[in-house]
Amino acid sequence: MKITIQHLTKRFGATTAVNDFSAEIQSGELIALLGPSGCGKSTMLNMISGILPVTEGKIFFDEEDVTDLSPEKRGIGLVFQNYALYPHMTVLENIAFPLEIKKVKRAEREAKAKEMAKLVHVDMLLDRKPKQLSGGQQQRVAIARALIKNPRVLLLDEPLSNLDARLRIEMREEIRRIQTETKVTTIFVTHDQEEAMSISDHIVLMKDGFLQQVAQPQQLYDEPVNCFVADFLGNPPINKTHGVIQNGQLVLDGGCCVTLDKAAICKEGQKVTLSMRAEAITVDENEKNAKGIIEETYVMGKEVLAYVLLGDYKVRAYIPAEKEFTKGQKVNIGLKKRGVFLFDDETGERLA
C-alpha cells in the first residue's frame, strides 16, 4: 500500500517537531526513517499511525485520506521500542490478542497465531511468558502480534535499540526477511545509519523536523544533496574542510592549496566546504608537491587508516596495507572523483 504525506506539520506549543514534510512511500517497500535524536522521526511515525493528531497537512493510504482516522481504523501494525508485551500472557496469547479483541473465535485466532509464530521463528516458544524470553525473542513476538491483524502498514519505532550489537545485526536481517515475505509496506524508525543502509529500499533522512533527502541507500551515500547528508552517512565520518576559492583553486584554512576541477564552477573569493570520504583520498609517498604530513596510521586488516595533516585539518584516508608510512612523513594527497563533494559554506547546499 502506497503512503503519501503532504505538507505534514506538527507543533507542540511554540515548538515545531515536524515542518512541512512531504514524501511518497511506495507499496511493499521497507523505508528507513533516519535522523539524529530529536529530529522528529518518532513524531512522524506517530502521526502516520494516528497516535498523534496532525497540526497541518494530509496523510493518504493509497487514495484514502486517513489524516483524521483513529489508529484502529487505519489498519496499522505498530512495534514499539520496548515491545509492550503483556507479562501475564503466553507467547501464543500475546500474538493472538489483537484477534481476541476483534472477537475472532479461539480456534481460528490460535491457528493464525501459530502461523505468525512460525513466520517469525518463535513457534517453539508458544507456552512461555515474556520474562522467559530473550530480547530478540520478545521482539519477534511483538512483530508477530503486529502482523496478525494483516495490517496495511507496519510501523517499527527504534525496534533494535535495546539489543546487543550481535543480536541487532541478526534481527535487522530477520526484519528484512519477514518484510520481504509478507510484502507489507514498512516504516522503520532508527538513528543508526548502518541499520538504515543495510535493510531499507529507500531512506528518508530528517533533521530538525525537516526532510533532507529521500533516496536509495547507496544513492544517499554517493549523491548527498547537502552537507548534513554527507556528514550523517559514512563510517569513518566524512572529512570536512573549509576554504576559499582563489585563482581557480581551493585554498584551505592553513594555506594548503587543493587543485579541484569542481572549483571551476565557483566564484572568486567564495567560501566553500570540501568534504571527502576516506576512500576518496589517495596518499602518494612521492614528496614532490607534497601537501600532507602523516600523523598516525592504524592497521585494519587488509587496509590501513591514515590520519594526514592537510593545512589546519586532520583527514582520514585509506592506504594499502603493503605501503609503509612513518609519522611525520610528507606525502602527496590526491582526490578521486567519487566521494568528493563541494558545498556552499553558508547554506550547506551542494555545489558539485
Notes on the structure:
The structure is a single chain. Helix 2 (91-101) crosses helix 3 and helix 3 packs across helix 4. The strands form four sheets. The chain has a six-stranded mixed sheet, with helices on both faces. The protein has a five-stranded antiparallel sheet with strand order 13-12-11-14-20. A hairpin with a 2-residue loop joins strand 4 (56-61) and strand 5. It has 352 residues and is of the alpha+beta class. Helices cover 24% and strands 34% of the residues.
- Taking all residues together, what is the mean pLDDT? 94
Alpha carbon gyration radius: 25 Å
Helix content: 10-25%
pLDDT < 50 runs, ≥5 residues = none
Please supply descriptive tags for the structure shown above.
352 residues, alpha+beta, 6-stranded mixed β-sheet, 5-stranded antiparallel β-sheet, 8 helices, 20 strands, 24% helix, 34% strand, elongated
Tell me briefly what this model is.
By secondary structure, the chain is an alpha+beta fold. Helix content is 24%, strand content 34%. It starts with a strand and ends in an 8-residue tail after the last strand.
Topology:
Layout: E1 3-12, E2 15-25, E3 30-34, H1 41-49, E4 56-61, E5 64-65, E6 76-79, H2 91-101, H3 106-119, H4 135-147, E7 153-157, H5 165-182, E8 185-190, H6 193-199, E9 202-207, E10 210-215, H7 217-222, H8 227-232, E11 239-246, E12 249-252, E13 257-258, E14 271-276, E15 281-284, E16 292-300, E17 303-310, E18 313-320, E19 330-335, E20 340-344
Parallel strand pairs: 3-8, 3-9, 6-7, 7-8
Antiparallel strand pairs: 1-2, 1-4, 4-5, 9-10, 11-12, 11-14, 12-13, 14-20, 15-19, 16-17, 16-19, 17-18
Helix pairs in contact: 2-3, 2-4, 3-4
